[in-house]
Amino acid sequence: MQENQTDRDTLLDTFRSDLFNGKSIVVSGATSGIGLAIAHGFARLGASVVATGSSPEKIARERLNPANQAIRFELLDARDGDGIKAFAATFETLDVLVNAQGILCGEAEHTEEVFLDVIDVNLNGVMRMSYAFREHLIRAKGSIINISSMLSYLVEPEIPAYAASKTGLLGLTRTLAHAYGPHGVRVNTISPGYHKTDMTKVLWSVPKSHDLIAGHSALKRWGSTEDLVGAAIFYASPAASFITATDLPVDGGYVVGNTVR
Fold first, then answer.
1. Per its UniProt record, what SUPFAM superfamilies does this chain match (predicted)?
2. Does residue 194 have an active-site annotation?
């Protein structure tokens, strides 16, 4: 099945090239996939972008990639509360925090140790980052964008921790929106559907599951990571100045489809 993948340059031409000039952006979980694509989107529109990840190998790889010259990569583990506080202390202000970190561990999530670890990264890590940068965001009247999942709305029995963490993220986002809103900070989520990333390669690399999932989407294709960039830029832009405590599904209509995978 031929797919019409979103082109980054065409997408970014939609926005002013200086839209985020002078703005400071942190994107967590940005050494690959969705987080990296979003980091590139903000950098292309003039922002000063710091991308974080917990893998020293991935950080080293991305620092050497010529395509990433406009982005600064820093090692940071979402489980490390003290490390996050120390990282935040190196900033004076922050305009946008994108929490894109996430892990998925399959059926091992039915064990207590793995379940709690996934929750710690995907949900607790968002709270740690949001709290550490709270005062920075207040000074900038900035915004937080949390990356949730369509599995906040659907059931996947094999990954209870991932589904629970991403569902909890919706509740956390709404709560923080009201807690931080009086100070001028907006907090929203984006819920991706099936996008071609390393995490979903086990599905899109197999023709049968690839086509089955694409066929369930209203647009009859998989999403690309670039399909999520515009949503993040919109949320962070003045065009969304009265939008907070909301979730934006970017799933090609998958969740509301009337057939089963």
1. NAD(P)-binding Rossmann-fold domains
2. no
Of the candidates 47, 48, 41, 40, which has an alpha carbon nearest to the alpha carbon of residue 66?
A: 40
Choice among 153, 162, 180, 235 that is catalytic: 162
User: Residue for token digits 């996430």?
Assistant: 102
The domains of the chain are located at 8-196+224-250
Beta-bridged to residue 27, according to DSSP, are 51, 98
- Please give the torsion angle defined by the CA atoms of residues 34, 37, 38 and 41, in that order, rounded to the nearest 10 degrees: -160
Domain 8-196+224-250 has CATH 3.40.710.10: no
| 210 Cβ contact list (under 8 Å, min separation 6) | 1, 203, 204, 222
Dist. CA 50–CA 85, nearest whole Å? 15
| pTM attached to this predicted model | 0.94
